[in-house]
Each structure stands twice: as C-alpha cells, then as structure tokens.
Fold:
Amino acid sequence: MIAALFPVLDDQCLSPVHALLRTRQKLGKYTILGRLSSGPLADVYRAYDRIQKIKVALKIPRADNLQGHEEFLHEVRVATRLRHPNLLGVLNASYIGDDFVIALELGEESLADRLERRISTANALDLVGQALSGLAFMHENRVIHCDIKPENFILFPGNKLKLGDYGFAKVRVRTLKASGSGTVDYIAPEQAMGRPKFQSDVFSMGIVIYQALSGRLPEWPFEWPLPGQDRLEQRVRPEFVNFLRQAIQLDPKQRFADASIMNAAFERLQSHARKQVTSRKKSTARSASQYNLRWREMRWREFSRRFGKTLDARHKCRHCDGPVAESMQACPWCGSEHPSRGADSRMPSSCPRCDRGVKNDWDYCSWCYGPGFVEETTRRYPDKRYVDTCSNKRCKGPLMPFMRYCPWCRSKVKKPWKLEGSKTSCKACGWGIASEFWNYCAWCREPVSRNR
Structure:
C-alpha cells in the first residue's frame, strides 16, 4: 500500500529551483489557491485536489539545496511509518513534471499563530496534552523529531492539534549521526552540538509548553526563575511548574527520559494542573474579567445580528476573536491589520499577496491591488453579491460591496461604500462604519472616537 502511495521515492536528483506558482495554476491534479509560506528550503501552497475534492497543503522543495532534498525524502518516509491522530499526515508524494510535491493535510493555523492571541489555561492544557501524545508516539517508534517548535504544530477545526515537519527527524539506533539541525530558540544544548537524544525533544517541548502558559520564551542559560514565571505560577499549580522545570533541565540526564514518560507525568497532573483561585481579591478580579468577557461577547452577538449578513462577517479576528469580514483591512475591535488572514474563504481561489478570496474569472485582486492571475477562463460568471459597477467607462465591470479595486480593470473604486443599516461614515475615508459597536474603522483603521 505504501509503495502504491509513494511510487517514486528514490534518491534521484531533483529539479532546478521551481518558479513560484501562481493562483489558479494547475499542477497535476492540484489547482493552486494561494501561497502559504516561502522559505530557503521549500515553498508551501494551499491547493485544491480536483480528484479527491479536498483542500491540501503542497510542500515543494527548492532544488538548490541538495541536503534539503534528502531531508524532504526522509520526511515522507518517516511520515509513512507514523500514523497517529496528533501527527500530521502525508496524503501523497510524487514527482509532477520536474517538481517533487508533498501533499499534506491542510490546517487552519499554526500553534505559533494561535499563541499570538489570548488563550485560556484549559485550552492551552488541552493542546499540550495533544502535542505530548503525538510526540510520545514518535518516541515509542524510536523516532526523534529534532525540531519541536510552535510553528510545527498545526491546528485543525475542533481545536485539534497535529505535529508535523519531520524533515530533521532521526531514527534512534546504536549510533546516531546528526547535525545541529533545529530552531535555535527551542533547541537543547546537546542537540546544538550535534548529539540529539529523546531528551532533546523533551527539552524543546518543555520550552513550547512554558511559552504557551507564560506568554514568554525563555532564553539561554535557562536559569530559574525564568521570564514570565510569575504569570505561569498564577495559572498552574506548583507541581506543574516543577514538571516544566524538570523538562527544561540543561543536563539531559535530569530530564524525562522520553516523551512517553513526560506524557504519563502530564496525565497524572492534568486533572489538577489549573490553579484554583481562593483569594477573595482574586475571585473579585476574576468575576470582573468574566463580566467584561460576557459583555464583549454580547456586543459581538448584537453586531453580528444587525450587520453580520450585510458584511459577511463570518470570520474571527486572529488576534481578538471578534467577528470580522474578509473585505476588512483592519479589525474594528482591536485595530490589527488583515484580521481574517488565513481564514477559509467562500471564493474558489485566494490572492497570493493578501490571502483574501478571489473568483476564478477575476483578472486582479479587488482587495489589495494584487498582481494578475493565471488566465483560467474568458467567461464572466454572474454573482448575486455584485451590487454596483466600475466607474471606469471603458470597463463597467460588476463590483461587490467594499471592494477597493475593480477586479477587471484594476481601477481604484472612488465611490465611498455605505454600510446598510448604519447612517455613520468614517470622516477619514468616507466609508460606512458601525460606530455604535466599532472601536476602529474597518477600512482605514481610523479610531471611531475621532468620528464622534
């Protein structure tokens, strides 16, 4: 079965550096929807599998690094050995033309992205448990990951977490040859010197857990008390702090022997890991915080009831979790830029520049003035979301609400868009705003207080 799934995984020389793929470009059975990331070793794209009718992540190595090619071949081989709910699965791997293409499960965001927003202790501990479960399975199969970091944990719907990127993984045998591969911020001292062990993954996992619960990333020489320890001690019991302290010991012999033992220790602590607030003062502060949270959620619900359908505000801001629309340039609640970046769009494709959805018959991105796309069709498809036309007399193409540029001729939309159901407009850009709800203009980031 594995041979049928990966028919050409040999050590042949890979292609020259592939040109960056463009949105709507065909690559075998895949249609490129947008680029997720680019790095020195590989480019990762969001794509649609036209045969299986699913969205996937395509990882395409750059061929100017021969050592990197070996790592990608190795990554696929390791992934075929490891099947676990908390390990990222490889769906397919083959040569398409001259490119070696790895198809992976497509998640919503990385743990690194999630940790940029506020996260509850219960939610953080749930993710920690899943991360340890996946890593423990790797260690039980004698595989050392060697690159544990938040960016390599991928989140899926339902708060499901999976560990991926096995390019640096090493199989533990009597002799283990390895370089100092890994990410500097999370790498264990012995791994940095080219001697990775199971305890090296334990160290890196300890750093990730500490960061998730304290909000701070410890640095060398990892002397206690570490930065953010006060916040950590407010959130978890002393036994859990000791658990992390053992994981982050500089001497590998003083750490947990492997992730299986670390996971067992975590499971014993998990039922009472969260610190209970007993102080009356802390209880009062917690009640006030819960009241503010409930008030904010009520405000969001009322906004969604009144304007959610008009704005198509079905996404959550990646920083504050407030309801936002794909067309918004800024979060109207916290003011952060590109609040819906990475969210799943109802459009069939996405702009590689801003990640917003685009239709297959558009010639340009209507949101960010992005470059042209690969021409897929000359036919124009009707859409009930079109409500206006381009002011360019030579174009007169249909427009959707809150488009910044015409997707047909790239002209800037000059007419200020109004928000149905609201009589207020931003004094800076002239576009409609929900001033009774928003803190910032979603179109130009102007504070709403200046509009009153």
In short: Confidence is low (pLDDT under 50) at residues 1-17, 168-182. The first strand starts at residue 26 and ends at 27. The radius of gyration is 25 Å. Residues 146 and 168 are 6 Å apart (CA to CA).
